[in-house]
Design a protein that fits this description.
Blueprint (H helix, E strand, L loop, with lengths): L11 E2 L6 E2 L2 H33 L19 H26 L4 H19 L7 H13 L7
Antiparallel strand pairs: 1-2
Helix pairs in contact: 1-2, 1-3
């Protein structure tokens, strides 16, 4: 039965008929999976924002997006392709999370919202103020990257 109001139960159908939780263990694992998916969604958003900011900075991408600074900056078309892929992944995951929340199960909704909140705190809280995980990560990368490989 499709619920049209929020309900609290371990019995939930999430996204499709094959993902039905009937036991507490299955329900808790499903909530954990949705939490991690929401967390990953915020990670993808943070990488996409970092790529956009780097492409708008003078001289293009000077700091590595992920990993060590071992390759020259990507060409304009490569950067746009990576940005487009990240956008597609972010959009698809966001829509799937929205559909899961539309199961109207209270635990599913809370798990997704908390996952998005924790993901924002961990990956994006330093976007504006230069602190938090994103700010620390950028500072570490700046110090660890030998800029001679990127110029």
């Amino acid at each position: 039965m499709m619920h049209m109001t929020f309900y609290w139960s371990k019995n939930a159908t999430i996204l499709f008929d094959g993902w039905i939780t009937k036991t507490w263990l299955g329900y808790i694992l499903s909530l954990a999976a949705l939490f991690l998916a929401a967390l990953f969604n915020e990670y993808v958003v943070s990488r996409r924002i970092l790529l956009i900011q780097a492409s708008k900075s003078p001289g293009g991408l000077r700091k590595p997006l992920m990993g060590d600074c071992t390759e020259p900056p990507p060409s304009s078309i490569d950067g746009r392709a990576v940005e487009s892929i990240l956008f597609v992944v972010n959009s698809a995951l966001g829509l799937l999370l929205m559909l899961a929340a539309m199961s109207f199960n209270g635990g599913v909704f809370v798990s997704i919202v908390v996952g998005l909140g924790v993901g924002y705190f961990v990956f994006r809280s330093g976007d504006r103020i230069g602190s938090g995980a994103a700010g620390r990560e950028a500072k570490i990368r700046e110090e660890a990257c030998d800029t001679s490989c990127c110029t």
